[in-house]
Specification:
- The chain is of the alpha+beta class.
- Helix content is 58%, strand content 12%.
- Strands 3, 4, 5, 6 and 7 form a five-stranded antiparallel β-sheet that branches. It has a three-stranded antiparallel β-sheet with strand order 2-1-8.
- Strand 1 and strand 2 form a beta hairpin.
- The longest helix has 54 residues.
- 21% of the residues are buried.
Length: 339
Amino acid sequence: MKLFKKKPQTEREKVAERREEVLAKGRKFKYPMQYSKHKLVINTIIIAFVALVVMVGVGWFMFYKSDTTSDMAYRIAQVIPLPVGKVDDQPMLYSDYLMIYRSNLITAEQQGGQLGTDEDAKSVRDMYKQAAFQATAEYTYALKLAKELGITVSDEEVDQAFEDHRKVGGVERSEEGFLKILKENFGMNAREYRRMLYLTLMKAKVTQAIDKEAIALADQVDKLLAENENDFAKVVEALGDEAVRHESTGGLVDSMNIDGGRSNMAKTLENGAMSGRFLSSNSDGYYYLKLKEKTDKQVDYESLKIEFTEFDDEVAEILVSDRVESYIKLPFALSGEGE
């Protein structure tokens, strides 16, 4: 028999008691949950680190041991600026190397058929790899000099070059048709072709800017032409045919001729007239041109050419020095001789 009856709980006391029960149960899991979260974070970091190491290892093997030229490798190189080597401490982009190699190879296969997998085909591929690496070194060196000299190539200049190429030969092609030609013959899309145009224009500007000897020689030609009534033969006689090259069409030729821009210049002149000094369309030298005769679709002219040599001479010297470093195994020595 209970002497004292338990006093009934009020609603407030019942709520407080229930709250304490819930909190007590929660305390049992508080620290174990913190431990589990901590362990989960550590495990995630370890897994991510291992995955990164594996990816780096696979990438290193793919690009620097197996020297792959696959589509996947090219796409990766376009996203990640991996170096294929360096020239004068300037990194050479793997994407540029693969772009040039793949384009040249596709052009060769378009002209002569698929190379196959035999030993001769491997030799051809090795030759194109070598050429692509050296071309990448040239363009990279041009970019380095351009930065030092403050030379730039604008988007507008690239756009204009793209349009000029689309209309080459006087044929008005649609952009869609031109892109199809690029894809089938060079394996390039518009962005890749614009990159190639950018590199080409930059190299051309640098080539012209650094060739002080060609500029001085052109000044001599200007003076001799003025003194000798624009007689090309007398200029060559005074300076020598190694310094100035004298050429003639030998008769009427198509005015759409791809000849460094001379036919286009000839179309703007009257018979017997002479142009002033102008830059060749591929920027490898200066031209002087005298028109002999022209019709609606043909021209006959003679010309003088002063070639740029300084940039090519510098690159040739660099390629056989320790100023160029390759991160891939090249088929031949950079001098062009077999190993």
